[in-house]
Specification:
Elements lengths: L26 H12 L8 E2 L14 E7 L8 E9 L4 E8 L5 E10 L2 E12 L5 E5 L1 E9 L1 E2 L6 E7 L8 E18 L2 E17 L3 E13 L3 E10 L2 E11 L1 H18 L1
Antiparallel strand pairs: 1-9, 2-3, 2-15, 3-4, 4-5, 5-6, 6-7, 6-8, 8-10, 10-11, 11-12, 12-13, 13-14, 14-15
């Protein structure tokens, strides 16, 4: 598959690729150089889109992004908890996806490198035969999570992971996802118009056990400046598709309180 030169392909960056980390210099100078990097412009036609990813400095305490279903009202909201960590080893973003019972279904950690976000760790959660959640370690084969620069719609950014499900440990599931920048746009969030970008997404899922079963999906992602992922959709099969749009952002304590309140109301009904 074609890969855009603006992003480091599979695995960790080369050993001579310097990551953005806290150097042994005055912290004021560090933030000055970081800000300079975030606002730098290129003269080769490349578009700097790093400000369209999640606002890492605003996510030090963590925020829940609540996404509402746009097509099927029967679907429950999607809750993603994003939190950033600024350490001596580097700058990281963790993402946790929760279902309606506040049980984690997915946890990932991305690292800031010079030309984008690189997926370092990914875990999935699946219930075993007793109903207890088990954590699955996913192998990251190509971790291009988000590029900081795009030139045109010809570049493809590769994301590839692989794991063995709890329900069928002899099987191997491989997910290959290609993102392709298509165009700029604008969205409205909480009454404010924001610049945004659109990625077309192509996914291939391979289920390998005594033969390989494949299924392809298509979709779209919209990232808004200063917000991050604002909208995403996926066409699953035929005319069936689902889509989610960012409704609001708030601290985790609010989601926990909402869950406790709903659980209390369910207990009263019983």
């Amino acid at each position: 598959m074609e890969k855009n030169e603006a992003f480091t392909p599979p695995g960790r960056p080369p050993k001579n690729e310097k990551m953005l980390k806290f150097p042994d210099i005055d912290s004021t100078l560090y933030w000055f150089f970081l800000l300079l990097a975030l606002t730098s412009c290129r003269g080769d036609g490349a578009q700097d889109i790093r400000n369209h990813y999640f606002p890492l400095r605003e996510l030090k305490e963590g925020l829940v992004y609540e996404y509402q279903p746009m097509i099927h009202d029967s679907l429950t909201p999607a809750y993603w908890y994003y939190r950033s960590f600024f350490t001596e080893e580097g700058i990281f973003l963790t993402k946790t996806y929760y279902e309606y019972e506040l049980l984690p279904l997915q946890l990932s950690r991305e690292e800031v490198v010079s030309n984008g976000m690189l997926l370092e760790d990914l875990y999935l959660y699946e219930k075993d035969s007793t109903g207890k959640q088990q954590k699955i370690t996913v192998e990251v084969l190509s971790g291009s999570a988000f590029p900081f620069e795009v030139k045109d719609s010809s570049g493809v950014f590769l994301y590839k992971i692989q794991w063995h499900p709890i329900s069928d440990p002899e099987a191997t599931i491989t997910l290959i996802k290609n993102r392709r920048y298509t165009k700029d746009t604008a969205v409205v969030f909480e009454g404010e118009e924001l610049d945004a970008i659109i990625f077309d997404v192509r996914e291939l899922v391979e289920y390998d056990k005594e033969g390989v079963f494949e299924h392809q999906y298509s979709g779209r992602e919209v990232y808004a400046e200063g917000i991050g992922l604002f909208y995403y959709e996926k066409k699953v099969a035929g005319d069936f598709q689902w889509a989610y749009r960012l409704k609001e952002r708030y601290p985790m304590s609010r989601l926990e309180e909402q869950y406790r309140r709903e659980r209390g109301n369910e207990g009263m009904k019983e």
